[in-house]
Write a structure and sequence with these properties.
2 domains, about 20% strand, 7 helices, single chain, four-stranded antiparallel β-sheet, 6 strands, alpha+beta, globular
Length: about 190
């Protein structure tokens, strides 16, 4: 999720009108950022599933269809742990999740892992919070939050297990406009 000022100085002045036009076509969504002082808070933008499909072509649509079918099957089995197990299996297949010697804080390592899966993570200055500003499965997550977000929790848990982390990490789906949040509690 980005604001107009982060898109770069080369953006022409009418970019606000253009972003509004693209938003009306449901290719991007927006929400007000956290206020940082006087005046209206800046708007933050993120690409919707329709926008991603337009950008990525038919391959993404095929992947989304497969994901939907997979989740429907999982949901009908009524096995809450299945999503967590799938996420943990996913973590085992991602090299960065299996490197116990990778450098950085737990939040930085998780952010690097989640960036490889197109989440556009941002670590807060407190080093204990990660904001996921995009989700490659946001539409499916809205339809089946337990399934998709459970897989993401499993991905995080699987990586932390590989790293020997003994604290707590909680994935908070849709906890802020335009983002999910991960809270990290270091071991006591």
């Amino acid at each position: 999720m980005v604001g107009k000022q982060e898109l770069g100085p080369s953006l022409p002045a009418p970019s606000g009108r253009h972003l509004s036009s693209v938003r009306k076509k449901v290719l991007v969504s927006s929400a007000a950022d956290r206020p940082t002082g006087r005046g209206r808070p800046a708007l933050r933008y993120w690409v919707t599933a329709a926008g991603r499909t337009l950008l990525e072509g038919d391959t993404d649509a095929d992947n989304q269809s497969l994901t939907r079918a997979f989740l429907e099957h999982t949901a009908t089995r009524e096995e809450a742990d299945t999503a967590l197990q799938i996420g943990a299996l996913w973590a085992r297949s991602v090299p960065i999740a299996n490197d116990p010697k990778s450098c950085g804080s737990t939040a930085e390592r998780l952010a690097a892992l989640l960036a490889t899966a197109s989440f556009n993570p941002a670590v807060d200055p407190d080093g204990q919070t990660i904001r996921l500003r995009t989700c490659p499965f946001v539409d499916q997550a809205r339809a089946n939050q337990q399934g998709i977000c459970g897989v993401h929790q499993g991905l995080v848990d699987g990586a932390l297990e590989a790293w020997g982390f003994t604290g707590d990490v909680e994935v908070l789906p849709f906890s802020e406009p335009g983002s999910c949040v991960i809270r990290i509690t270091d071991p006591a």
